[in-house]
Structures are given as structure tokens and as C-alpha cells.
Amino acid sequence: MGRFRQAWLVARFDLGTALRTRRALAAVLLYVLVAVGTGAGLVWVDMELGRHFDTARVAVNIASTADSNVPSLDEVLSKLPGVDAEMARHLLDMPLIVLGYFSITLFLLPFLVALVSFDIVNSEVRNRSARFVLLRCSRTTLLSGKFLSHGLLLATATLLANVAIFFYAWWRMPDIPAARTALLLGQYWALSLVVGFCYLSLATLVSSLVDGGGLSMVAMFVVLIALSILSSSDAVGFLSPSNYKLALWSPEALVVLGNLAALAAFGTGFLALAWLRIRWRDL
After folding, report:
1. Cβ atoms 207, 122 nearer than 8 A
2. Tell me, what DSSP letter sits at residue 84?
3. Neighbouring C-beta atoms of residue 136, cutoff 10 Å
4. 195: Cβ–Cβ under 8 A, 6 or more apart, which residues?
5. Interatomic CA distance for residues 195 and 111, integer angstroms
6. Are 134 and 283 in contact (CB under 8 A)?
7. How far is the C-alpha of 272 from the C-alpha of 27, rounded, in Å?
8. How far apart are alpha carbons 227 and 221 in whole angstroms?
9. What percent of the chain is modeled with pLDDT above 70?
10. What is the 3-state secondary structure (H, E, C) of 229-265?
11. Which letter does DSSP use for residue 82 in this model?
12. How far is Cα 165 from Cα 29, in angstroms, rounded to an integer?
């Protein structure tokens, strides 16, 4: 309990510092604004084109039934990498606001982590404040507190965006299935937390290896791009956490849980390496 209390004290102080410096707060607000703006755009598309899309989907399905040479929409969608016929049907049945928002979240979340947490560790090393903190707590506690504070920022930003998008969509489209939409947004928000854990752990590892603030941000973005490219390889794509994000759309619970476990394993591995680096380096 003493270690947890110490970690919470470090996290609370770090959160206060982030709010006072406004850098992390600005990045979080930027993410919320981009996410809400994207959600507003999806609501507009749904309002303007939703009925036309439903009509077109019915027409295409009728045509594919009458003529076997005309593919249905789920058959077309299943041609995309990583998408099978069952997932395609699941995606087509998804409310547009949920489909679009979680897609944007999977793309933007790693970059939010890069902007907010690129110096999660090395900021304490550069200004030598780690030496004073370590007089009262261990290195493990320091790392735990820093990780906890950035995790809370990440969870709060994504939750605020989800809530804002839901209520905006409900206000503009009162006839949407509110309960189902809220449930799906909550479900995919929970999934995004595991994704966030993975990439926050990666940012912690990069920050523990690279001392310069600006350099660690550049390194984090380079690593994100490299992992994205790596995930497109059939031979070694499994070595990248980006390879496991698309399967979170699967309608099969076991598939989703398996890919969540892979992302959690990547995150745990990154965090363990960061801990080893912090434990043995000169602070």
C-alpha cells in the first residue's frame, strides 16, 4: 500500500505539472477537438447521405442476388486486407458514427501518445529532478507514477471525446438507436484503452532510451511509422502491434480478446524494458 500511495503522489504531482505547463493539456484538447470535429463530420454525412447509402446498399444486394456476377457490398469489403466476409457484414451493420470514430481513434491515438508522452521519463533525467524524487521513493515507484499520470490523461481525453460525440450525435439525430450507440462507443473506448496502454508503454521505452526531448519525439514518430510499415508485411507483420488493431473490429469475442492480449503483451514487454533501463541507468 505504501508503494501505491507513493506512486499516486508522483502521478498527482506530474498531472499538476502537466496542467500548469499547458503542453499536455493543449495536446489533449487538440485531440478532443479533432475527434469531436471528425464525429461532427460523420454525423453530417450520416444525416445527408445515410438514407441514400441504405437505399444503394439494398439495390446492390438485390442486384447481386439477381446476378451472381454483381458482388454484394460485404463481398467488396471483404477484399480489403485483414477483412473477411463476417467482419465485412459486421462493419456494414455498424452505426456510421461508431465505425468512423473508432477508425479515427485507432489512427490518432498513437500520435496523441507521442505528442503528450514523448518525454515521460527523460524530462526527469534532463532537469535532474529524478535525484530529488528518488530520495523519497524507488525507481519503480517513480516510473509507475509517471506512467499512471499519463495513462489518466489518455483515458480522460478519449472518454471526453466519446461522450461529446455521443451527445452531439444524439442531439442532431434524435432517432439514432441511442442505447446501442452508447454501448458500442463504450465498448470501443474500453478497447482503445488497451491500445493506448501499448503505445504509452512504447513511448516510455523510447523516452528511457533517448535523453533529448525533441529527439525523443522524433524517435517516437519514426518508430510509429516503422511499426506501421512493418505491420503490412505478411512475413514479419506479427512483430508490430499495429498488426493487431484491425482485428479489434471482429464480431468474434475470442478473436478480439486474442488481439487485445497481443497488444497488452507488447505493452508489458515495452514497459518491462523501460523499467530495466531506468533501474540500471545513472539518474
Report:
1. yes
2. -
3. 11
4. 105, 106, 109, 110, 245, 248, 263
5. 12
6. yes
7. 26
8. 10
9. 77
10. HHHCCCCCHHHCHHHHCHHHHCCCHHHHHHHHHHHHH
11. T
12. 14
CA 184, CA 73: separation in Å to the nearest integer? 22
What amino acid is encoded at 110 in this protein? Answer: P
pLDDT tens track for 238-249:
999 999 998 898
pLDDT band at 132 (very low <50, low <70, confident <90, very high): low
Q: What is the CA radius of gyration of the chain?
A: 21
User: Quick one: cell of 200?
Assistant: 504509452
Question: Within 10 A of 70 (CB to CB), how many other CB atoms are there?
Answer: 13
Distance CA 61, CA 72 (A): 5
pTM of the model: 0.85
How many CB atoms neighbour CB 174 within 10 A? Answer: 8
Tell me which DSSP letter residue 112 carries: H
- By CB atoms closer than 10 A (0-12, 13-18, 19+), residue 13 is middle
pLDDT tens-digit map of 166-220 = 898 888 888 888 899 999 999 999 999 999 999 999 999 999 888 876 788 899 9
Count Cα atoms within 13 angstroms, Cβ side, for 220.
30
Distance CA 85, CA 281 (A): 50
